[in-house]
Design brief:
It contains six helices and 26 strands. It has 419 residues and is mainly beta.
């Protein structure tokens, strides 16, 4: 009887074994698979023409981050970034009378990133300057990266401040007291306060990204009155609901980018190196019309299965200085540009993870999917240029140098096609 029960239990167990394992396909391990292995066809490479050009006259209004900085290096020269901001009263206006005794005014700037990257344990002290503007700041379409707004001779802050946790706290000078002591409407206060310029002192060797969407990015007035013993506070807005713009200045004297110092419309041949710098710095323009003509003539019915733009980083660069991502733009016949079609395509995050313009620290390169972009160019036969820019180019100082077209490991497009 015991043996019968044993054989029955064993048989039941063996019957259940197939149910414990399935052959259903999963995404496990797909992130390790090269997309080229997913397609059959002929593999080819496009040799590009490439130039570095200025990324000039950016609109800087309406963004949720701003940057202040003064930084220099032997590759890109000197960079200066100034953040302009309105000071906004509450929606119902402001009423700070003579009965109010101002104890202090503190500006808090929530920090998003600091360039260059340093260990978290490293104490950081920055020399910050805040000046009142000479005229009422009205952010509009005329506020571009090359527009400097005049500052008055009234300084609200000029001192060193230590970076704590995630923010900078600036105890303002008493020169700001009469500016804030007003009784007026929300709109009229803009004329009284004019606006502020926030920047770092010369030779700070730092760029700081300020989170303008953070609720703690504020200007707080602490006060008391004869009737109230405790300290009260009045909060002015310098974050999301206040207008902002930025000014970026570059000095390329003594660098490979020196031609831009005398001719902003110049271009620098990219056979050796290509330079990508944010904050109104540089972008890269690519072209391959001659290849396109030859390929279409030889393969008029080619179908592009997969294409990737490879951007190997030049040797000797520090990984911590690399931008997180590079974006590609398609130029049109009318002079406008849009993101390449592939940037708007939702794909399997496992299959293509890490390829869509992000930096690969192991391979020391960027890789962008340009399958649809290449197919469109093959179909039309017209290449008006593809341009590369740094993602978050208005709010990040991270920059990079890409291998040129004539190097051992050049910038190029690898693709798979069939007919």
């Amino acid at each position: 009887m015991f043996l019968k029960k044993l054989f029955f239990s064993l048989g039941l167990f063996l019957m259940l074994l197939p149910c414990a394992c399935t052959e259903d396909e999963t995404d496990l391990g797909m992130s390790l698979q090269d997309p080229f292995t997913l397609y059959s066809g002929t593999r080819d490479t496009i040799s590009l023409t490439a130039f570095t050009i200025l990324d000039d006259s950016l609109s800087t209004v309406g963004y949720s981050s701003g940057i202040i900085g003064d930084y220099s290096d032997p590759i890109f020269g000197n960079m200066k970034a100034i953040l302009y901001s309105q000071i906004a009263a509450p929606g119902e206006g402001i009423n700070i009378s003579d009965a109010v005794v101002i104890d202090s005014v503190v500006m808090t700037l929530v920090v998003d990133t600091i360039y260059p990257v340093m260990p978290d344990s490293t104490p950081r002290t920055f020399h910050v300057i805040v000046n009142q503007l000479a005229e009422t700041f009205k952010p509009d379409s005329s506020c571009i990266s090359t527009k400097m707004i005049p500052e008055s001779n009234v300084c609200f802050f000029d001192d060193e401040v230590t970076y704590y946790a995630d923010s900078l706290r600036l105890r303002m000078r008493e020169t700001i007291y009469p500016v804030l002591r007003q009784s007026c409407t929300y709109e009229d206060f803009f004329d009284y306060s004019k606006g502020i310029a926030i920047k770092l002192a010369d030779n700070s060797q730092t760029a700081i990204t300020v989170d303008l969407s953070a609720s703690n990015t504020t200007l707080r007035l602490y006060y008391h009155t004869d009737n109230v013993d405790s300290t009260l506070q009045f909060i002015f807005t310098i974050n999301g609901s206040a207008g902002h713009s930025m000014y970026f200045a570059h000095d390329y004297t003594g660098t490979a980018l020196a031609p831009f110092a005398t001719n902003r419309k110049d271009s620098i041949n990219g056979t050796d190196r290509l330079y990508l710098e944010p904050l109104g710095g540089t972008r890269v323009r690519l072209g391959f019309q001659s290849f396109l003509d030859r390929f279409r003539k030889k393969h008029p019915s080619a179908v592009i299965h997969y294409a990737e733009l490879l951007l190997p980083v030049a040797e000797g660069l520090n990984d911590t200085s690399m931008p997180v991502r590079i974006l590609a733009l398609k130029n049109h016949a009318d002079g406008t540009s849009t993101y390449v079609t592939d940037a708007n395509v939702l794909t399997n995050a496992y299959t293509f993870g890490g390829f869509d313009g992000y930096y690969d620290r192991q391979k020391k390169q960027y890789r962008l999917r340009v399958t649809r972009h290449l197919q469109e160019l093959m179909r039309s036969g017209k290449d008006y240029g593809t341009e590369l820019i740094i993602d978050s180019r208005r709010s990040s100082a991270f920059r990079t140098v890409i291998n040129g077209t004539a190097t051992d490991n050049p910038i190029r497009i690898d693709f798979v096609y069939s007919e």
